[in-house]
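User: Predict the complex with 4'-phosphopantetheine.
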Amino acid sequence: MRRSIFPGSFDPLTNGHLDIIRRSAPLFDEMIVAVLNNADKRPMFSVEERCEIIREVLPSVDTDGCRMSVESFSGLTAHFAKEKKATAIVRGIRAVADYEYELRMALMNRRLEPSIETVFLMAGEEYSYISSRLVKEVFRLGGNISGLVPPTVEARLRKRKSI
Ligand code: PNS
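Assistant: Here is the predicted structure with 4'-phosphopantetheine placed in the model:
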């Protein structure tokens, strides 16, 4: 049984994350989307809401029979992966700029848990410029974010703004 985790902040989930899930899930029997409960950052969405969004959107993604679940975690990704008996950590690479950071994380995670491999997938080129940070910035400044995030994320951002 091949189980992986796909860790991230997902603040918020973007269509780029969904692209990586769609590409990577068929490689595994099970995948846990692991949402970091980052106490030291001030996320836009609470960890509960980030998990809720992912659970709402996942059924629309074709994961080719891979059993998907969503969990939040605190602490080290490598420890969470080990605790969940996952053999792989999935990460997406959008552009060369991501590579250095991702390489350092992968090597550190390997040092922490040598039995767990990081698996990198190249994002589709149409998603290569999308990040949660840019989506939030564009939205905050009145730009159009449709097509960058699932509709529920856009609706939730709008609702938040109108309060
Ligand atoms: O979506 P992000 O913000 O790029 O995800 C980064 C994430 C959550 C994968 C990374 O910050 C992480 O693994 N944090 C948990 C703490 C940890 O394990 N730190 C050491 C990483 S080598």
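Residues 7-9, 36, 76-77, 105, 108-109 surround 4'-phosphopantetheine (CB under 6 Å).
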